[in-house]
Amino acid sequence: MESSSSQAEFDYLFKLLLIGDSGVGKSSLLLSFTSDRFEDLNPTIGVDFKMKYVDVGGKKLKLAIWDTAGQERFRTLTSSYYRGAQGIIMVYDVTRRETFTNLSDVWAKEIDLYSTNQDCIKMLVGNKVDKEDERVVSKKEGIDFAREYGCLFLECSAKTQVNVEQSFNELVLKILETPSLLTEGSSGAKKNIFRQNPPPSDSSTSSCC
Question: What are the boundaries of the region Disordered (predicted)?
């Protein structure tokens, strides 16, 4: 995945969402992907947002990536950001069992409740594999969860940048292979990614591509 040299034009605009417990490294993953650097960051307050232009599969893409707070007190605030997302990255910490358990107890339920794109692509990411000696969640457990919930899956490290770019790359490639999501992300439609209301229902969009 290469950054596009022409940021004025793009074929598609994709809205991506990072979710998961506080402290799993969502903000660090986003920083690693967008800026190629690592920092130990404080927990996100509410929502953070970054843009990145990339070339993937011969297409110029503009990625609008929302980094949500993991703390429960911000949950009602972040629920609206699920609307219209073509891709959702669920992040857990391989050294903290509860962050993996909460994927099914909390985050998968939130996707079902708030996501407005039924074909939305989900990516499961196990972060902090650089701490292999502290690992408590096995790779097989991650694979099994991903199969059960229909997610793509990778383990990565925001600190060493292992598989960080590949995580976003695989997610975006899968979105590009899903026609129903491309109609939502077309640059020609000039979608407003900041709009909080779900798009009006249109019978013409329900026909099969």
Answer: 189-209
